[in-house]
Amino acid sequence: RCNLLWSASKTLMIGWVDTIRICVIRKRSQIELQTRDVTEYLVDPVYTFQTEYFISGLGPLDDQLVLLGVPKVCDPEAGKAQRPVLMVADYKDCEFCELSTDSLNIRGYEEYSCNDYYLDILLEENRFFIVSPKDIVIASPLDIDDKVKWLTENSRFEKAITVLEEVGGKSSHHTVVTVGVKYLDHLMSEHLYEEAAILCARICKNDKALWENLIPKFNEVKQLRAISIYVPKTPDQALNSDIYELILYEYLNKDPPGFLKIVQDWNPALYKTGVIVNEVLKQLTFLLSRDQNTNLENDENIHTKSDKNIDLETVKNIY
Q1: Nearest-CA neighbor of 28 among 37, 39, 19?
Q2: pLDDT 10s digits, 172-189
Q3: Boundaries of each Vps41 beta-propeller domain copy (predicted)?
Q4: What gap in Å lies between CA 289 and CA 274, rounded to an integer?
């Protein structure tokens, strides 16, 4: 069945078998009218696309199109027709791009062909009516909350955050922060700590309380070093000194050269210097004690000597 639909006053959408054609009605130029005996208007095919479906209906949705169709290939197991699909696609720039595709749960679909379905539209409300011999399904575009919920449930967090940022950072039920925290937990569970640190800075910005709530997540998995370059360090945005001390402790125990560098770079007003000096001295005492109990010249002892020099240099820098 050929499907014809006016998507605008001079735009005609044609769907026939598996092919979509978008045509524009345009007025001929004076030169064309003078040189030939032709009508004043003509139908100019602008876009032509072939799809993977036998087309049951077409409809406009803003600058996109909605297609109701049946997959060309039968179900390989049952040998019968597959469920009909409702697809939203973009067709600009001479490309046909599927944006979303939903299979419809229609009773008796196995026995139907594309001509057994019909798509009707209420343009004023962006409502689409899918009619079959046994069912009528009403479809409408998702609102922002629906879209963010769907994206989040399908682990498409980055897209969900982008959608929220485009509408000012929040909707009725979601915010960049709430979705961002879920995304952060997802990245942490996948051990993607560098990406999680970048995301943390993106959603926290200048929110001191949020920083202090999220940084412990990195502490739990001993990955404070990943977040260290992103934490606020200016006096007017400084966090609780405990946060900086936790980061320094991790560097002291896991990365002595990094510990020295961070002490050189950070403003000592961010943390309690006396507390850090005490921790460094404890480390030195432990290393010296271990040296006295072994005379083995191995890589571990060489590394220990380097650590002692770094610790001494750090104490000097702090003082």
Answers
A1: 39
A2: 889 999 999 999 999 999
A3: 1-139
A4: 22
Q: E-assigned strands of 51-133?
A: 53-61, 64-71, 85-90, 97-103, 118-122, 127-131
Where are the chain's structural domains? Answer: 3-140, 142-238, 240-319
Q: Does position 233 have pLDDT exceeding 90, yes or no?
A: yes
Which of 274, 252, 253, 275 minimizes the C-alpha distance to 262?
252
Closest C-alpha to 21, from 94, 113, 84: 94
Residue indicated by tokens 């720039």: 93
CB distance 65 to 125 below 8 Å: no
Mean pLDDT estimate for the chain = 85
Integer Cα distance of 39 and 270 in angstroms: 80
Query: Which CATH number applies to 142-238?
Result: 1.25.40
CA 317 to CA 260: how far, in whole Å? 8
In this prediction, residue 319 carries a pLDDT of: 54
Cβ 53 vs Cβ 69: under 8 Å: yes
For the beta sheet containing 136-139, the strands, ordered from the edge strand earlier in sequence to the opposite edge, are 118-122, 127-131, 136-139
The first and second tokens of residue 205, run together, are 């910005």
Residue type, 288: L
- Distance between CA atoms of 186 and 102, rounded to whole angstroms? 26
* Residue 25 contacts residue 83 (beta carbons within 8 Å): no
Q: Could you tell me the pTM of the whole model?
A: 0.61
DSSP state, 95? Answer: -
Query: In Å, what is the CA distance from 128 to each residue of 9, 86, 133, 137?
Result: 20, 10, 17, 8
Crossing angle, helix 144-153 and helix 157-166, to 10 degrees?
A: 160
The single-letter code of the amino acid at 221 is V
